[in-house]
Amino acid sequence: AMGNHDALLRVFKDGSKYGVEVDRWPYATESAEAAFARWFAHPLNGPEVSDPRRPTYKENVYSFQYGCVKSIVFNNNYWTSNQSKLYGGSPEGYLMEDQLRWIATELEKAEADPSVRYVFLIAQEPIFPNGGHLEDSMWYSGDNDVRARVYTDGKLVSEKEGMIEVRNRFVTMVSGSRKVAAVLGADEHAYHRLLVTKDVPVGIVEKDDKDNNGKIELTKKETCSTLPGLKFSTWFLVSGGGGAPFYAEEDTPWNSYWTRKADPAERRRGFYYSSQENLLMIEASARKVSARVYNLHGELIDKVDDLMGSAGRR
Question: Which residues lie closer than 8 Å to 86 by C-beta, 6 or more apart?
Answer without folding.
Answer: 20, 156
